[in-house]
Amino acid sequence: MYGKDLSERKKLILKAVVESHIELGEPVGSKSLQQLPGIKCSSATIRNEMAELEEMGYLEQPHTSAGRVPSQLGYRFYVDQLLEHYAMTTGEINQINSILKSKTAELDQILLAASKLASSITNYTGLAVKPKRSSVSVSRFEVAYIDESNFVLIMVTSLGNVVSKHVRLSEPRPRQRIELLCEALNKLVAGIAAESINLPVIMNLEAVMESDAPIVAPIVKTIYSALTEYDGGELQLSGINRLLQYSDYESPEHLSELLGTLEQKDEILRLVSESTGEDVSVLIGTESSVQVMNNSALVFKPIVKDGKTLGVIGVLGPLRMDYAKVLETIEHLCGSVEEIIGGYSPIFPSPAALPPSDKAANDLRKGKNDTDE
User: Fold this and answer.
1) Residue burial 270-304, b: 16+ Cβ < 10 Å; e: rest
2) Is 277 within a domain?
3) Are residues 217 and 195 in the same domain?
4) Which residue from 79, 225, 271, 338 has the fewest beta carbons nearer than 10 Å?
5) What CATH number is given to the structural domain containing 242?
């Protein structure tokens, strides 16, 4: 295993080089290291140790007369073995709590808020990912009856999103029949992915609805349409302009390629979706399969509920990012989001409490979210 041949002094010097380079963004020399607390050896000894660390692949010397900078192997060893816990400030914790816990909207908005917080706290680019999926389903159906010709079909997806669709009936139907439809949907369709709502499922629904069987086909079409909106994956970025602050992105050509990849989003979505497990992932430079990220680091963690990954929060920045702060921020943000969605229970209006004169009904009559039987 890499690092087993490093003495404690070499580890101490490597750690000091990484942290000095993260802070200053410049090559680190032996004289500057000697002035640091905890480094109790001569400048000559430090130079020798740094030269050996370079030969071993942990440091690099960008210019002959300059100091040294960490290599990708050096960063990896630092993250895996030398990183000290970062204690978030009271202000940072309060910022997370006040903003995230005020979000009672859909999961997408919560993830985006977390991405913006990750960017503002770390000063890098934050990202929120809704992974690509092939098995999105409706966890629960509700109906809001308006009148004999109109009702709202409300669907809670397995991702935690709430989708509502207005259904305009071709023939008047009493409340009891629409409530029967809702019961049948919860019994026969809830938990089934869009591609699995097949002919036998539809036939069972029609059998339950008996004389109202004609309503089934348009309802199934509505459900299928709603589910397919949530299975393609989505990437939202926050604070892309923060990358311009770092000398690592001074090359216009490299920065243009990176921004182009972020804009297209497909490669980043694939990269995140391929990750397994629930822990924080740290991809340093060429560890990523995305070539234009060779000079960048990506840190991300999935949001998991009941064994399902609902989204991902992450940070993209230069190789010399402040890993301790980024890791702790991502851990705290993801923990807060999981706490929020763990107690999240969408509140539906009682059908009896929703008269036709309700504002929602008026909006529906104007054609918002319409679907015709």
Assistant:
1) ebbbebeeeebbbbbbeebebebbebbbbbbbbbe
2) yes
3) yes
4) 225
5) 3.30.450.40
Which of 159, 57, 170, 156 is CA-nearest to residue 107?
A: 159
Considering only CA atoms, which of 227, 228, 204 is closest in space to residue 216? 204
CA distance 124 to 233: 23
Instruction: Tell me the residue type at 141.
Output: F
User: Is the CB of residue 110 less than 8 Å from the CB of residue 96?
Assistant: no
Q: First vs last Cα of the chain: how many Å apart? A: 64
CA 219 to the chain's CA centroid: 31
Name 298's bridge partners: 283, 316
Strands of the 234-238 sheet, one edge to the other:
234-238, 125-130, 308-318, 296-305, 281-284
Nearest-angstrom CA–CA distance, 329 and 314: 10
In angstroms, the CA 73 to CA 345 distance is 45
Cα separations (Å) of 21 from 31, 195, 334?
A: 14, 51, 28
- For the question of whether the overall pTM of this predicted structure is more than 0.70, the answer is no
The verdict on residue 63 lying in a domain is yes
Among residues 233, 271, 229, 237, the alpha carbon closest in space to that of 114 is found at: 237
320 and 242 co-located in one domain: yes
- Distance, in Å, from the CA atom of 178 to the CA atom of 212, rounded to the nearest integer, reads 9
Domain of 190 in residue numbering reads as 138-231+346-372
10 Å Cβ neighbour count for 58? 28
> CA 161 → CA 6, 109, 310, distances in Å?
50, 10, 10
In the 8-state DSSP scheme, what is residue 104?
A: -
DSSP category for residue 78: I
Q: Check residue 154 and give left, alpha or beta (phi > 0: left; psi -120 to 50: alpha).
A: beta
Q: How far apart are CA 321 and CA 304, in angstroms?
A: 26
Q: Which two structure tokens, joined as six digits, stand for 51?
A: 């030269």
- The per-residue pLDDT for 79 is 95
- The crossing angle, in degrees rounded to 10, of helices 216-228 and 175-188 is 50
Residues in the chain with pLDDT < 70? 1-3, 64-65, 102-105, 131-135, 228-233, 276, 343-373
